[in-house]
Amino acid sequence: MPLSVTLAVLVAAITHATWNAMAHAIKDQLVAFGLIGIGSVVVAVPLVAVVAPPAAAAWPYLLASVAIHVFYNLGLMWSFSYGDFGQVYPLARGTSPLVVTGLAAAFVAERPTPGQLAGVAVISAGLGTLVLAGRRTNPPSRTALVAAFGTGLTIAAYTTVDGIGVRLSGSPAGYIGWLMILESLCVPAWAATRRRQALRETPRKVIVAGLAAGALAVLAYGLVLWAQTRGELAPIAALRETSVIFGALIATLAFKEPFGRARVVAAALVAAGILVLNLA
Predict the structure, then answer these.
(1) How far is residue 47's CA from residue 175's CA, in Å, rounded to a whole number?
(2) Cβ contact 88:155 at 8 Å
(3) What is the mean pLDDT of residues 28-53?
(4) Which pLDDT band holds residue 164 (cuts at 50, 70, 90)?
(5) Handedness of CA 174, 17, 25, 71 (dihedral sign)
(6) Contact assessment for residue 133 and residue 260, using Cβ atoms and an 8 Å cutoff
(7) Could you tell me the pLDDT band of residue 65, with boundaries at 50, 70 and 90?
(8) What is the three-class DSSP state of 53?
(9) Helix count and strand count (H, E) for the chain
(10) What is the pLDDT of residues 168-207, one digit of tens each?
(11) Could you give the angle at which helices 142-169 and 96-107 cross, rounded to 10 degrees?
């Protein structure tokens, strides 16, 4: 995998973990994701104003991704409402790499090399370590597990759909801009209907944090989509989910969740997987 792609996806992983932690810190999850949606739109509108729009062939995939992202956001809100950040985030993110590997082989005819498969497997093992460790020390509720696993399946679905769509778009920046505008409007509209009074009473610092998280969401996924135009979907999906390790660090520093020996092992496995991917 080219070094530029690796670095872009790692930056995206750090950014993604950061905005998810910011979302988790806001108690009212509908308000949180409503603000994130508004922040994403604010960033995306100027973007689509200055770049070329996606080609016609990309729009069916873009619209399909919008629909999938709505369920992704609902699943993420549900996950954060019922489980600890350090538990549901690894499960949601860790589900997708292996699923994407199968979907990419089925729909994009991408068959990873043995080295790439080994890298994906090692990274997935590291992510799985976090999930299993969390179950032993502080078992999450069944609701949280179902929500996080379902969220992971939506991640795999939109990763594959967007991987195809952005390659057909002829304009990765235009694709991410229109995707963010269309999918980000849904939750704010719902929040305005269901939590209008709560939105009015939201402290200014929470509003700023939510809007900033929305801007970071655009940056994080924009980098991933750019990378998908220059590399295969499965390795990029696995590399992107290193955000779980950064999420574990954030959970320890910001939410005082224990890091523990299991997370050290998971971090080492993920680092080894990254090395394997770049040598494959």
Answers:
(1) 10
(2) no
(3) 92
(4) very high
(5) positive
(6) yes
(7) very high
(8) coil
(9) 14, 0
(10) 999 999 999 999 999 888 888 888 887 778 778 888 999 9
(11) 40
Which residue type occupies 140? P
How many whole angstroms separate alpha carbon 152 and alpha carbon 99? 9
Phi and psi, residue 140, nearest 5°? -75, 160
Rounded (10°) angle between helices 85-94 and 96-107? 20
Contact by Cβ (8 Å): 239, 14: no
Distance CA 117, CA 96 (A): 14
The 10s digit of each residue's pLDDT in 47-57 is 999 999 999 99
Residue 20: predicted pLDDT: 85
Question: Which whole number is the average pLDDT over 69-96?
Answer: 79
Three-state DSSP class for residue 52: coil
d(CA 46, CA 131): 39
Residue 139 has which token pair?
Answer: 């078992």
Dihedral (CA of 16, 97, 153, 172) sign: positive
Is residue 61 within 8 A of residue 165, CB to CB? The reply is yes
Enter the tokens of residue 117: 């498969």
Secondary structure of residue 111 in the 3-state scheme: coil
Q: What is the pTM of this model?
A: 0.79
Residue count of the chain: 280
Residue with tokens 């080894």: 272
